[in-house]
Write a structure and sequence with these properties.
The protein is of the alpha/beta class and 177 residues long. The chain is built from 6 helices and 6 strands, in the order αβααβββαβαβα.
């Protein structure tokens, strides 16, 4: 209801994220196995749609962005810049269940960007793990409370109409209480 009255207001990184993202336009079948590479290729080929689904202010910078640290190479799946927040947004794609190792890896990517890439006038880097399945308890336990890392679920297709109607009814009942 607030969104209907005020519009989409962006004050902090969590305000730019949809949950879940609906990636129907990628054309991936939910019942067929696909790799992170195929997932990434689908996103790149439909970049305009993906940017619109992400939200406001996103600019695409790179895919498989390599950086070298301590003589090891690391690759960030997708690198964006958000002009409204004035910060880098790193996205790592996961086609399965999110793990604590995934969160730790993203923390390292964010730390690297904050220390070696970001300029003084820019805000802290945001990390997004775009995953098929996540457990909020795992995310809360693994990341510090003030972390700029978010695990966001994606869905390849919107749920059926009946499920959406049930969710809306549940929400309306909660609002009445």
């Amino acid at each position: 209801m607030r969104l209907a009255r005020e519009g989409h207001i962006i004050n902090k990184p969590v305000d730019i994220l949809k949950n879940p993202l609906t990636l129907e336009f990628l054309g991936l079948k939910p019942d067929v196995a696909y790799s992170e590479t195929k997932f990434e290729n689908a996103i790149i080929s439909k970049m305009q749609h993906f940017l619109l689904e992400l939200g406001k202010g996103f600019l695409f910078e790179a895919r498989q962005k390599r950086f070298t640290f301590d003589e090891d190479d690391f690759f960030v799946d997708l690198v964006f810049y958000n002009r409204l927040l004035q910060c880098y947004v790193l996205i790592d794609l996961k086609v399965g269940k999110l793990t604590h190792q995934d969160l730790g890896q993203m923390q390292m990517y964010v730390n690297y960007y904050d220390r070696y890439v970001k300029r003084d006038f820019e805000k802290p880097t945001v990390g997004i793990l775009l995953c098929k399945e996540k457990k909020d308890a795992l995310v809360e336990l693994t990341l510090p409370k003030n972390s700029n890392i978010y695990a966001q679920q994606y869905a390849l297709y919107l749920p059926d109409k009946k499920l959406l109607q049930n969710k809306l009814q549940e929400w309306l009942e909660e609002q009445e209480e």
